[in-house]
Amino acid sequence: MIAPELAEDLEFNPRVAAETRFNEAAELLGLDDGMRKVLRSPARELTVNFPVALDDGRIEVFTGYRVQHSIARGPAKGGIRYAMDVHLDEVRALAAWMTWKCAVVNIPYGGGKGGVICEPAMLSEGELERITRRYTAEILDFIGPERDIPAPDMNTNEQVMAWIMDTYSMHVRHTETAVVTGKPLNLGGSKGRPEATGRGCMLVTLEALKLFGRRPEDTRVVIQGFGNVGGMAARLMTRLGFRVIAVVEWDGAVFNKNGLDVESLMKHRRETGSITGFAEAEEIDREEAMFLECDVLIPAAKENVVTSLNAAKLRCRILCEGANGPTTAPADAILADQKIFVIPDILANAGGVTVSYFEWVQDREGFFWTEDTVNERLRDIMVESFKDVLAFADKYKVNNRTAAYMLALDRVRFAYKLRGIYA
Questions:
Q1: Residues whose CB is less than 8 angstroms from the CB of residue 367 and which lie 6 or more positions away in sequence, other chains included
Q2: Is pLDDT of 17 > 90?
Q3: Contact criterion met (CB below 8 Å) for 335 and 314
Q4: Residue of 101, 113, 183, 191 marked active site
Q5: How confident is the model at residue 9 (pLDDT cuts 50, 70, 90)?
Q6: Closest CA to 93 of 40, 142, 141
């Protein structure tokens, strides 16, 4: 845990959370100081400040970041987010999480992450395109199919990826679809990619239910976040018989003890822009919705949702972390005391990067798979990875999050051991 005198100020710093979990796993693995330094340190960091002409003729300077945490197991992999609260510590932490996530599911990538400080909702499509293309040009020497492959993240999408791919391709003078993943299908995207992260959450939840002898139709689910991850998880889980009893969004929460009609709720949100006002559910306080009695809670929005201030109030049996870093480090011990079965983020939401890996492979082969093939291969990897984490947890008598970190660190350490230190 974070030292008490630092907890209040640093609990919500994602870098501190990443380092806390890293240190615990490294200690249990018996890593020497040198290897700890290697695995802890980002390989490369880039900060860029670039001008963009806005629609009204003004010139604004935007700040962007790209961090490559590790390339020991393969090229860096990680999304690009657009938000006003993007900062370097966050990008560093997310890049490290990507390293561990790729190692947990045993795909040949290291970890990377990027971001641009901007407010997408206040920008026109033309302004977003100009920001994206200029940011891409600034990090051009950092990225590439063999170096670092970006993907969508918060407030970015397949259109942004298409702009990045096109900008990169114009500079290298040939079409290079494998430079990013999460692209539109007709530009080298993969079938099954939009559902991948939510599907991964569903798959590991199904594995957890088997441990407790439960069936989907007897399982109540609360989902925080109704975007690509939470919305897809809700849709796929209800198709298998899960009862999604509540959905929490930034502007409110809706509840139906008998289970929400997820498709109707999605239609309502498309038509109104909000989940509130949905006739087939009652509105409840968005904070209290997180503490409903349920079998599975899926935080699928942002980091720092489950904290030392509210972890004791959770009334779920399984916490499946669809978002990156939704649980702060001090909350881990509280969840353990509550005997909540945690499926940590670096396992639970790894379906997205796994299918991104499939997309990259398909682009490089120039041969594309059916959606059934994508989903079958995703299932194999998620189920095998779930079993690997539980095996580590049993072997070292630790919780699932610590086991996942230990598994990841061990795999990256092994890569460094085999490669040696170049001098």
A1: none
A2: no
A3: yes
A4: 113
A5: low
A6: 40
Helices of type H across 190-291: 196-211, 228-239, 262-272, 286-289
- State the number of CA atoms in the 13 A half-sphere of 370 facing the CB: 3
Q: Cα(75)–Cα(15) distance, rounded to whole angstroms?
A: 22
Whether residue 225 contacts residue 248, with contact meaning beta carbons closer than 8 Å, is answered with yes
**CATH number of the domain located at residue range(s) 196-348 in this protein:** 3.40.50.720
The string of DSSP letters for 274-323 reads SSTT-TTSEEE-HHHHTTS--SEEEE-S-S--B-TTTGGG---SEEE--S
In CATH terms, the fold of domain 42-181 is Rossmann fold (3.40.50)
In angstroms, the CA 154 to CA 345 distance is 16
Outline where DSSP puts E strands in 69-107.
76-83
Q: Where are the domains of the chain?
A: 1-38, 42-181, 196-348
SS3 261: coil
pTM listed for this prediction? 0.94
Give the mean pLDDT of the chain. 95
Nearest partner of 43 among 13, 70, 24, 20, judged by Cα: 70
The average pLDDT across 361-371 equals: 97
Please say if 395 is a catalytic residue.
no
On whether the CB atoms of residues 330 and 3 are closer than 8 A, the answer is no
Is the pLDDT at 277 greater than 80, yes or no? yes
| pLDDT > 60? residue 312 | yes
Q: Nearest CA to 302 among 349, 265, 336, 338?
A: 349
Cα–Cα distance measured from residue 114 to residue 91, given in angstroms and rounded to the nearest whole number: 6
Query: What integer pLDDT is reported at residue 1 of this predicted model?
Result: 45
Tell me whether the CATH fold assigned to 42-181 matches the one assigned to 196-348: yes
Class of residue 293 by CB neighbours under 10 A (exposed 0-12, middle 13-18, buried 19+):
exposed
| Sign of the dihedral through C-alpha 233, 234, 236, 240 | positive
Nearest to 70 by CA among 418, 412, 380, 406: 412
Provide, rounded to the nearest whole percent, the portion of the chain with pLDDT above 90: 92
Tokens of 338: 């509550």
Tens-place pLDDT, residues 381-409: 999 999 999 999 999 999 999 999 999 99
Element (H, E) at 163: helix 158-172
